[in-house]
Structures are given as structure tokens and as C-alpha cells.
Amino acid sequence: MFKKFSFEDVSAQNQVKASVQRKIRQSIAEEYPGLEPVLDDILPKKSPLIVAKCQNHLNLVLVNNVPLFFSVRDGPYMPTLRLLHQYPNIMKKLQVDRGAIRFVLSGANIMCPGLTSPGGALDEEVEAESPVAVMAEGKQHALAIGFTKMSAKDIKAINKGIGVDNLHYLNDGLWKMERLD
Amino acid sequence: MADKPQPVRVVYCPVCSMPPEYCEFGPDFEKCKPWLIQNFPDLYPDLLKETNERDADKVADKLQVTGISSGSSDGAATSAPKQEEVKRLPGGKIKKKEKQEVVIEKVIRNKRKCITTVKGLELFGVKLSDASKKLGKKFATGASVVKGPTEKDQIDVQGDISYDIVEFITDTWPDVPESAIYFIEDGKKVPAA
């Protein structure tokens, strides 16, 4: 999704009103309970929250010009990889095998066999249509953020086709956009 | 969780901006290598071995080169081909870096009025929005960033300031050498200096 993404794709940036801010906070807190103790550090109450609207119904949540979360249409808010690297345990994790890393880093969606093979790992509790962190075999940090197409059980049972949509990965356009002014 | 989890500080490779463990999958692993060897030798144990071998090769190469060049004149050494910087595009394609120059053009708007356009300032790492503000302030005219032809941004300044602007540019942005500034006069490119 962010394969090609630059400043030009941002069509409008607005400081959102307090009620919208509250809504965003609330939905982030619901989605990532692990983030609650540090939520005030990440999204300080005082500093203004800016929402950048981009093409393809994409929204970025910015604090101090740093993109922290993104969402598609009215979907759940997902952290950017830089944020996820800071707080690695806030999302459910899936692990792909070593062979898949190369493809994931060029933007491919994650196929089921890459998750079920010996190098991969699955969290049984992952439901369909939920945001996940994609880890890699033998690596410490997440390499992508995805949105599951089927539940973990289905991935195991069907073992074919796309399991997770790749939304945001290392070195894509959003990753390179450390700051947005 | 009683305690606040502290943010993990992740080190990123300065070359490809990814965590060092992913450098090998990055666009330019070769360029990352020196940094990796210095900072994370344990991540890629193979690298050290490889470089040791290569260093040995290099030394041998150098010996050969000095042997040859000592015979030839100095002129050959100074006119060594300037390596053009290449920029990797996401598709793995290589794009040549554009020549760094600032082009100033005067466009007549109607009879007595004209607009001075400045192209190419962004190639020197100048922020166009800042630049237009500064220009507007200096010359007390309207100055704006305009999307020029072929997707390039340029600055339009009202009025004919083409003579004062050269000095102003070199003063405010020391990175821009006077030799890189060009005028367009009668469709011809003329160096300002």
C-alpha cells in the first residue's frame, strides 16, 4: 500500500478537534491494550493531534509531525513500524520463514505456507481481519505490519493463498517518511 | 503490567535506514557493510572474513596502480572520471542524479511587468517554501512555490530581480556556488558568474 508514497500523496493535514482526538485515542486504546500505560507518552494530551488525509482513503495520525498511526477507510488504527519497534509487544505477532523475508520487504502479501512452514510461527488467537505484526525467522524486530485475511486456524487448515495483507513494511514509502511537515 | 514499559531503542542502519539485521535484504547491502562491520560484527560473522580477503586484494591493486601511474603524467590523475552519483529507485532501477544547478529566468507578463522564476534550488537541499518566504521578504514582493512543467517545483517571484538574486542566493545558502547559477536569456543558458 505504501510502496510508492511521498509527500505529494498527502492531500490535507488538519488538526482535529477534541472530540475526534478522544475517539482516536479510545479506539487505539481498545485495539492495543498493551499500549495503555504509555499512551500518554505517545499521544500527549497537550500537543495537537494532526490527521493527514491521503489518497486511497488513508489517514495518518501525526504528533509533532511524526507519523504514528495509520488507518484505511474506517479500519482500525495501526502503528507505524518505527513505533512498533519501540513497543514491540503491543500487537499479535506472526512469524514468516527466512525465505519469505525478501518478498515481504518488496511488498508482497504474506502467503499461508510461509507462516506454517518450520521457520514460521502462528499465534492461535489471531482472528481474521485484524492487524498483526509480521516477524521473521531469526530476527528480533518486526519487518511488516499486516491485516489478516483469515484466522490463524484457517491459515493452518487451508495453507494456501494470501494469509495476511501486507500493509506497511520496512523501507516502504511510509517508513522513509520519518517526519511529515 | 504495573510498570510502564519503556520504549525500546532500536538502532537503524544509517545507510538503508532499516534495523541492521535486515540490511542483507536491503537495497544496497554492499554499502551497508562497512557500517555493519564496525557496529554489529556479530550479526554477520561471514562479513569479517570476506572483507579481510578483499582488503588484501585492494592492497595488491593499489600496488599495481601506483606502479602504472608513476610512469604517466600528473594530468591523468587529476582528470580521473568523476563518479556520477546514482540513486536507487524502489524498483531497483538506477537513476542518475540530476546536475545541480539553479536556473533563473525572467518571464514578461505584460509589457512592463515580469516574473522571475527560480528553478533547481531544491537540488541543493534548500526548502522551497522557506526560500520563497525569504525571497519575498528580501525583495518585498510576492513569491510563491509553483508546480512547474514536468512535475518540478519552482519559485515565482514578482518583478525583475534577476540581478540582485544571484548575490542573495549565494549569501543565504552558502551551499550554492555562483558557478552553478545560470540565467536564461533569449532561450540560451548563460552562466551568471
TrEMBL record, chain A:
It comes from Arachis hypogaea. PANTHER family: MALIGNANT T-CELL-AMPLIFIED SEQUENCE 1, MCT-1 PROTEIN. InterPro entries: MCT-1/Tma20, Pre-PUA, PUA, PUA-like_sf, Uncharacterised_CHP00451. GO terms for molecular function: RNA binding. The lineage of its organism: Eukaryota, Viridiplantae, Streptophyta, Embryophyta, Tracheophyta. Keywords: Cytoplasm. The keyword Acetylation does not apply. It comes from the Eukaryota. Residues 92-171 form the PUA domain. It is found in: Cytoplasm. PROSITE patterns: PUA. This is PUA domain-containing protein. One of its GO terms (biological process) is formation of translation preinitiation complex. GO terms for cellular component: cytoplasm.
UniProtKB/TrEMBL annotation, chain B:
Residues 67-80 have a biased composition (Low complexity). One of its GO terms (biological process) is formation of translation preinitiation complex. Residues 102-173 form the SUI1 domain. It is found in: Cytoplasm. Pfam families: DENR_N, SUI1. GO terms for molecular function: mRNA binding; translation initiation factor activity. Residues 66-87 are annotated as: Disordered. Gene3D superfamilies: SUI1-like domain. GO terms for cellular component: cytoplasm; ribonucleoprotein complex; ribosome. Interacts with the 40S ribosomal subunit. Belongs to the DENR family. The SUI1 domain may be involved in RNA binding. This is Translation machinery-associated protein 22.
